[in-house]
Amino acid sequence: MSVERDVIHMSKQPWTKEKMNKWIRERGQGTGKDYVPWTKIIDFPSMGRATRIFGVKIPRIYHLQSDGQLRCFLIFEWCDAVVDIRESFPMLNILETIDDKDDLRLDKFRDKETGVPLVLTTSFLLTVRDDSGKERLLARSVKNASELKRSTTIENLEIQRRYWRAKGVEWKLITDKQIPKQFAKNIAWVRETLLDDGMDANQKAEQARLLHDDLIRHSDLKLNDVLNAFDHREGVSQGTALYLFRYLIAKKLIRIDMNQSVQVARKVKDILQ
């Protein structure tokens, strides 16, 4: 991935001061559903692993630039303490913000054709709320470990570290080796049930309640047997109970070990926590 793609939009049009100022007015602004990320998937026409995903906690489309970012997004969204997620957050006014910048190679981060400074971004700016209701910001940069071999990436990360330190915001680097992949996979598996599926919300909640009762009542049975019996008894299509089981997990009405794949051949009591 080139420096430009790492920090800024890559289109065929040149990066000019006019375009930068236009983006500053239009992007990286707002919070919640009104936030507009600095970089969007449309800005990366040839980027193979970019993903757009609709948020469950905040109802808007998120633009994620790698598998690592997608997995981190899923985990952040799952966390009850996280109340807002702003991806591709621009670090504006770097020169004015960072005092100790004499040893930084900011000259590396300019458009090769126009010489206009590139706008660096942090993968995620999170708003977290503690038990007392107090909110604070956390900045997280997500990189593949292989990217850390590049001097430009290291320079980029050091700029981020100093920028957020000057802002009084905790910043950390997350590599793909640190991300619990099965945890993220399980979240993706269950969160689909929280999106609009055409099913009546009240009916879904009521059927899920019935299944919950079955799981508690028949905890000595295999999960697959409980699910199949539910489908047969309720006269619903095969797989409905499994869908509702995923829904119960997504709503956190039942808990499982999210770091392990669900084995339906196991007994219910060995799956539920």
From TrEMBL:
Q: What is the residue range of the signal peptide feature?
A: none
Question: Which residue intervals define the domain TnsA endonuclease N-terminal in the entry?
Answer: 80-176
> Does this UniProt record's set of keywords contain Cytoplasm?
no
The upper taxonomy is: Bacteria, Bacillati, Bacillota, Bacilli, Bacillales
Provide the alphabetized UniProt keywords.
Answer: Endonuclease, Hydrolase, Nuclease
Name of the protein this chain belongs to: TnsA endonuclease C terminal
Question: TnsA endonuclease C-terminal domain location, by residue?
Answer: 178-258
Can you name the source organism? Alicyclobacillus tolerans
Tell me a Gene Ontology molecular-function term this record carries. nucleic acid binding
Record keyword Hydrolase present: yes
CDD domains per the UniProt record, alphabetical: TnsA_endonuclease-like
